[in-house]
Specification:
220 residues, Elongation Factor Tu (Ef-tu), domain 3, 5 helices, 13 strands, 15% helix
């Protein structure tokens, strides 16, 4: 588990094919690895990876075919900057929200504008994830815990303060940039709970009709 509070910006040093999937080497820059051992988890742009080697200036990790299929890891350029966060401990300050490091999908930056000292971003989520994104709820973008300021269909808005701009890769974002999205873990589990026995059915999901039948919605 992670908090979505980025601890350092690292760099992709190598990305190599390995038996049908990938191995990646990340240079960790200022990230303190003194308490990291082989087998520990580190989030790279919000993707939970397991350190399999620690060469001193960073770590190597294996990237499974499943991770390749649902993230942008395989498209990271050599030398590209990445957000880094070590897994939380029982004494870690939970400054963001609970983040699993399991990316739900890929979104896209639609617009970026200045708003006082902060910057305003509009992003588009895949339609299947839009129902998990709520006004003033939490969302993780490339591993960064952020608050949703507005929702309009599959589009949502974020206000990013200067500190976050300076200390993450968000300063690189432009319209058209694709990003990792992880929705609030509570929203995902709540949907499964609301499904009840329907959760065992193929393609089961919460619908307006189901919510109305359960008394969560009233007709107008």
């Amino acid at each position: 588990m992670f908090t979505g509070i980025i601890q350092a910006v690292g760099k992709v040093l190598a990305l190599e094919p390995a038996g049908g999937d990938l191995r990646i080497r990340i240079g960790t820059g200022t990230l303190d690895l003194s308490d990291v051992a082989v087998g520990d988890s580190i989030a790279v742009n919000g993707v939970c990876l397991t350190a399999v080697q620690l060469p001193g200036d960073g770590f190597w990790a294996d990237v499974s075919a499943e991770t390749v299929s649902c993230t942008l890891i395989h498209r990271l350029p050599r030398g590209g900057a990445v957000n880094l966060e070590k897994a939380l401990t029982p004494t870690t300050r939970l400054g963001g929200h609970l983040v699993s490091g399991h990316v739900d999908g890929v979104g896209k930056v639609i617009a970026r504008t200045q708003e006082a000292r902060s910057e305003h971003f509009t992003l588009a989520a895949p339609p299947e994830l839009a129902r998990y994104i709520a006004h003033k709820g939490s969302i993780c973008i490339d591993g960064v815990s952020l608050t949703v300021n507005r929702v309009d269909g599959a589009h949502f808005a974020l206000n990013i303060v200067p500190h976050t701009i300076r200390n993450t890769i968000i300063h690189e974002y432009k319209a058209g940039r694709e990003v990792h999205l992880e929705v609030d873990i509570i929203a995902r589990y709540l949907e499964r709970l609301l499904l009840g026995e329907r959760a065992t059915q193929p393609q089961g999901r919460v619908t307006q009709e189901m919510l109305a039948a359960a008394g969560f919605m009233t007709s107008t």
